[in-house]
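User: Some background: our group keeps a shared notebook of sequences we're curious about, and every so often someone picks one and asks for a predicted structure to add to the entry. Today it's my turn. The entry only has the sequence so far, pasted here. Could you supply the structure so I can complete it?
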Amino acid sequence: METRKESLKKAWETFVHDSSIDPTVRPVIAESWGRSKALGIDPNVFRIQRTAPDTIEKELSDQQQFINTSLSIMKNLFDFVQGTGFLISLADKNGMILDLVGEDKIVKKAGTHIGDIWTEESLGTNSICLSLLTRAPIQVFAAEHYLTSFHSWTCSSAPIFDENGAILGVLSMTGECDQVHLHTLGMVVAGVNAIKDNLQMQTSFKQIAISNTYKTAIMESIDEGIVALTTEGAVTHINNTARRILKIDRPMKEIVGTLLRQVLGSHHPLCDKIENCFKISNGDIFFMDEGSFTVTHRLIHSRDNQIIGMVLVLREMKMMKKLVNGMVGARARYTFHDIIGNNTKFKETIKLAKAAGNSVSNVLLLGESGTGKEIFAQSIHNAGPRRSGPFLGINCAALPRGLIESELFGYAEGAFTGAKKGGNPGKFELADGGTFFLDEIGEMSLDLQAILLRVLQESSIVRIGGKEIIPVDVRIIAATNKDLLKEIKIGNFRRDLYYRLNVLTINIPPLQKRKDDISTLATYFLNILNQRLNTNVKFISDEVLEIFGSYHWPGNIRELQNILERAINITNGNTIIPASLPEFMFSPNGTPKNIAAGSQVPLKEYEKQLIISLLEEHNGNRAKVAKILNISRTTLYRKIDDYNIGI
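Assistant: Of course. Here's the predicted structure to add to the notebook entry:
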């Protein structure tokens, strides 16, 4: 009876002789024979195409991970068939041999090497090229090969795909015909599946590694300290900020996987706190290490809502203060470039203020209301070594006695009904490392003056209702329109506080004494107001400038700005004329008020008339009047009562 090997041999000879195909030949083999013959390949000549050495080296380098992953599987397969004359090979997607595993004599007998090209164009019908073409496992038996050199061999090959379905290469087992059976192809397919699983596992590991790298980068880019814990309290992740805050100097590899209690010490107060955190809701805040940092927590839940861990967020108080200051606008906007004037005396004032900017000593600004004391304060701050720190201010006359104390010094948790949990820092704490501007310091009550004096002497504060002493490093710039020496004589101001504040005294001249600057200031404010109000009033008439020069300006620069804003709003053309000015700037007969040299207009009388005029103009809208006057509504209400204004 004719064997399969013999019948295939006859069918092959018939095809080579007259190109006819025996019906017993598989179509995939018959089609490959036809292509091989059409390519002009001599079936009796073994002439394999080999890749150039430099190309081989590059391909092996590019495919190193693929080769290393496949090699372990190839060696496992070889262990099963060792001693039976099998050769196991790995080819890339182009049919180039990447690696070989087999006994030396078998490798030599097969006549193949790393870098050989197993395509139809090179070797005619073979299992490697057919596996690539059909994208399926295939076994080529004996004379099914087109070259006679391979008629004593049987080769089983299967393609290796990546996770996207693209072919990476081919795994093959080649052996003598008598040693091969159908199970050989099954072994190759199993090997391919193992390679694919290993590649996917490596991809997953790589993705996890990338994810961990991203996670580490994210954690290290966060200003807060981050600690992730298991339910048992073991550390799974911790960033360097947390290590610094918690003063942990152990290597990272000794921390991860270790109980936090063992890392910090069994008596560390944080350990007791976090054990209770597993029993309470997310986000509770507690202070640690004498208030130097706060801790919040968030529980980690599984998909079935079971608690599987916790994340702790540690925030240093100095970082929180910086954040809060940024949110509340605790910064100085003005510099000496914003102070306008060429008056000789005023330029001397600026020179003295710039000298104060180079110092860290306390400053006392003296001047009438509206002369720009806060602009000077901000400019001094921005010119000095504390420019990168916060700038906070408070108007000592604008807040009630009880409120100003909590604003200055903050309060502790439970200090009074409605106090925030964890307490609230005062402006002295928030200004730490920067400048604190105390406007209208002459209005501060004597008992608060005593507390302020103690703060300046000890450089520390105690919150209302608290016991903890909190150090503060703050430069004070105080301002007043009062004669503090006179206030000391009548018992309204403490002499010792005055000397604490009066290190560098700067007198800001009123506008009445620098009338040569009025035209410059008016032009400056005109440009600024046009931008803010989206108007196009370009000029101020000479008549208006003459009126400005004759007017006493009890409200100083602030009054000049307010009058210009009013004029811009009611001017129809592009020039401010006398008709745009308020009535109180004129005498009863309609001519400008001429103030005799050295005469004084009572400030309170002017202020009263100004408030009445503005209330009438704005139909009693007190909020708008307060905004125009740049004072709080509370201050406006108080002045209305003081002046017995019935509108």
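Suggested note for the entry: The radius of gyration is 45 Å. The chain is about 45% helix and 15% strand.
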